[in-house]
Amino acid sequence: MKTAGLWMHAWDVWSDGLETVLGYARDAGLTTLYPASNYHAGWFIHPHSRGRRCWLPEDGALYFQPAPDLWEDCRLRPPIARCCHEVDQLAALRDAVGSYGLTLSTWTICCHNTALGLAHPEVCVQNCFGDRYPHALNPAHPDVRQYLEVLVRNLALSYRPRAIQLESPGYLGFRHGHHHERYSVVLDAVAGRLFDLSFAEHDLAMARAAGINAGKLRDQVAALLQGYFDSAPDRPAEWPGSWDELLERLPALRQYQNAQTTLEEGVKDLCRAALAGGTTLLEGFEGGSQYQIVTCSGYGLNAAQVHQRVSARRQQLEAGQELQVGLRPGFGDVPSAAALREIVAACDEAGADGVIFYNYSEMSRANLSWIGPALRDHMV
Q1: Treating both helix axes as pointing N-terminal to C-terminal, what angle do 201-209 and 214-231 enclose, rounded to 10 degrees?
Q2: What is the pLDDT of residues 155-174, one digit of tens each?
Q3: How far apart are CA 17 and CA 33, in angstroms?
Q4: Which of 106, 241, 347, 364 is 20 to 30 A off residue 75, Cα-Cα?
Q5: In whole angstroms, what is the distance from residue 138 CA to residue 198 CA?
Q6: Radius of gyration (Cα) for the chain, nearest Å?
Q7: Which residues lie below 8 Å from residue 213, measured CB to CB, with a gap of 6+?
Q8: How far is residue 30 from each of residues 208, 280, 336, measured CA to CA in Å?
């Protein structure tokens, strides 16, 4: 394999120091760091960070200092993380990675931003009942699309990463993990997908342009879900047993789903176009002809399962696309150093161009120590 990446956060540099993070990456045989250029909130355990063990970052913040001229006409402007007010941590990484034999890519969050969603609820996903999901920016909204274009262009021009890896460039649903998020009515697979659908103003306009009576479909979806809620904990009579069964009953729903998929592809096109003229590659998860690098997940899989997934994914890629595999040594996914060695070997044997590990802050020191031996003999 030719690449081995590490997801990380700018606050790792702020907490542990540039030399500590870069020295670890070099000594482990990694080739590329993937700091988050922006991020949402979370409540994390950091097993080895300097001076603390729990961390609650600011929600929806940028971990770089944006170029004012690029953002001048952009209505959606995330806050800048406090740890980057005085020192641009992403710039510090950009300027230092080369001396450690490393390259820089960015891990970039797209439509998952609660700070922007709370400040601008009109740009959020809106369900069939009219409720907005504040964590989920709507990719159909022109302000969201402009925000993503500016974000990607700023990163490419100012930081010159090898790749910009897009996370969540499409629609997000109800489930998020908000503080004390709860629902006593258990949503099955069909109800969950219906509750995730967005029927915001720009979604309806998109559907009408495609010849879909979106208002009628929204009302049908609302009636189905209300029937589900009214029958809970039982299921309504003739409740569909699968999503495919429901699509057969409601052809307009299939059309609507396809229209939203097309729109999501358009977001990827927009981001790819924002990189035109430069050397930065576009990277994403699972698929898309716009991506020059595709990352598939190996989370929770053993070596044989990883080999099978990577082999299948390799055959689906277009000519010239690179394939890397996301691995998570922590979180109980990988039981031992020996198991990680087997999994990395399976990635290599199945035709992956690289692997990427999640992530520096949250792995224990033991998990971090497994990476170097696992990469040995598999890097070219």
Answers
A1: 130
A2: 999 999 999 999 999 999 99
A3: 15
A4: 106
A5: 8
A6: 22
A7: 252
A8: 49, 19, 19
